[in-house]
Amino acid sequence: MEKKKLSLTYRCLRAIGLNYSEEEYGQVSIWQVIKRVYKTYRDGFLLKYVMHSWLLSPILPRKVRPWVAKKIGCHVGKDIFIGDSVKIDAGHADMIYIEDHAHIAGGTRLLCHQRDLRDYKVGDDYAKLPYRLGEIHLEKGSLVGMESFVMPGVTIGEGAIVGAFSLVTHDIPAWTIAVGRPAKVVKQIPRRDIEETQE
Fold it and tell me: How far apart are CA 39 and CA 145, in angstroms?
């Protein structure tokens, strides 16, 4: 098997410890790496010091954290709630869509990338597996419960509720309640009777 010759840029990047894959990233320039490093440090500062600032604690969940999420690249609607210790996949924040009135409870992780294990075989090097990317959509009025994981490519439908400590690997339909690892729908949320709304 003929070994592919790496460009000078790739050899330099690998020499300083950056293991970019030409297959996954295409041609990467030093300038792109510098911009990425700047963004990583800026986003890291915002996530660590602004998202969890005790000085701003009264306005963190509804004002500051949504602003930080938007600043690092998430698509953020109006009047959303982000609890404490929420982890956002900052490297792929532009793949996260949080619609109006969505709630993300404390400790939740939103993950837009993971290793693609579909072709993983005995003897393969896990570190060389490609990544599978997928957008996350939290639709209007949905809630993700505390300490839950939302995996790549998942849509949580309008008004849906994901219970605490759930692992969301598949879409959750609108107006349902899902719990578990992996999360499964356990209840359809009923419609409000007309008489109840008129009282």
Answer: 29
- Give the DSSP H or E segment for 109: strand 109-110
Please check whether residue 169 is in contact with residue 151, taking contact to mean a CB–CB distance below 8 angstroms: yes
Please report, for residues 60, 95, 105, the alpha-carbon distance to residue 92 in angstroms, rounded to integers and kept in the order given.
22, 6, 20
Enumerate the β-bridge partners of residue 87. Answer: 109
Q: Which CA distances in Å does 177 have to 28, 68, 110, 174, 181?
A: 44, 28, 19, 9, 14
Residue 113, φ and ψ in degrees, nearest 5: -140, 150
Residues 7, 11, 16, 21: is their CA dihedral positive or negative?
positive
Which tens digit of pLDDT belongs to each residue from 145-180?
999 999 999 999 999 999 999 999 999 999 999 999
- Give the distance, in angstroms, between the CA of residue 81 and the centroid of all CA atoms in the same chain: 15
Q: What pLDDT does 3 receive? A: 47
pLDDT value of position 55: 82
Over residues 35-74, the pLDDT tens digits come to: 877 888 888 888 888 888 888 888 889 999 999 999 999 9
Backbone angles phi, psi at 74, to 5 degrees: -65, 150
| C-alpha span between 155 and 172 (Å, rounded) | 6
How many other CB atoms sit within 10 Å of the CB of residue 125?
Answer: 7
Contact status, residue 187 vs residue 176, Cβ threshold 8 Å: yes
Is residue 159 within 8 A of residue 142, CB to CB? The reply is yes
2: pLDDT strictly greater than 50:
no
Q: With CA atoms as reference, report the closest residue to 97 among 153, 179, 49.
A: 153
